[in-house]
Amino acid sequence: MATRIYILRFPAETSNDPMIYQLVKQYDVELNILKADILPQREGVMILELNGPAEKVKKGLEFLKSSGVQVERLAAAINRDDEKCFQCGACTGICPVGALYIKRPSMEVIFDPEKCTGCSLCVPVCPVRAMEVSPVSSAFAEAEEKTVV
Ligand code: SF4
Ligand code: SF4
């Protein structure tokens, strides 16, 4: 199973198409709409969390792209505050993709943002809340700025 967050930019001519409905029905992916601003007769922006087998998520994204939707992975949704992190290692057991791991022999806890899927499982596990979800609102504002209205 993969959990990833994407920014979707819908061209104005697709704003009335039920693409998200089709994504669920045809490609059997679970989704969570984190933020959306889809207005009739203009471009829209949506931040979407997709869950499902990697192959189905991939096919669903291909469907969106073939329909004219710009799809961009939101890779920087999770950050670690290194000032807060005291290297306890509690987060390393929960990360499903090995983005948090203990480097040996130094026993340093490493966070690899390149591997991170943004699933957020590590956030509640950290006793000092060093793992932070980047405010989606600011990412959304950035995405909206890029959108021609
Ligand atoms: S959000 Fe946390 S648990 Fe999820 S993949 Fe990223 S580092 Fe691992
Ligand atoms: S659980 Fe928090 S404090 Fe412990 S290693 Fe992970 S990020 Fe650092």
Please tell me about this protein's structure.
This protein has helices spanning 19-27, 54-66, 122-125, 136-146; strands at 2-10, 30-37, 44-52, 70-73, 78-80, 100-103, 108-111, 131-133. With 149 residues, the protein is of the alpha+beta class. The chain folds into two domains: 2-75 and 136-146, ACT domain (Alpha-Beta Plaits, 2-Layer Sandwich); 78-133, Alpha-Beta Plaits, CATH 3.30.70.20. Strands 2-3-1-4 form a four-stranded antiparallel β-sheet, with helices on both faces. The protein has a two-stranded antiparallel sheet with strand order 5-8. The radius of gyration is 17 Å and the shape is elongated. The mean pLDDT is 81. One iron/sulfur cluster binds next to loops. Residues 78, 94-95, 97, 99-100, 116-122, 131 line the site of one iron/sulfur cluster.
Q: Find the structural class using helix and strand composition.
A: alpha+beta
Share of residues in strands: 25-35%
Biggest sheet character = 4 strands, antiparallel
Report the total helices. Answer: 4
Number of domains: 2
The percent range for helix content is 10-25%
Give the CATH topology of the largest domain. Answer: Alpha-Beta Plaits
What does the average pLDDT come to?
Answer: 81
Outline:
This protein starts with a strand and ends with a helix. The protein has helices at 19-27, 54-66, 122-125, 136-146; strands at 2-10, 30-37, 44-52, 70-73, 78-80, 100-103, 108-111, 131-133.
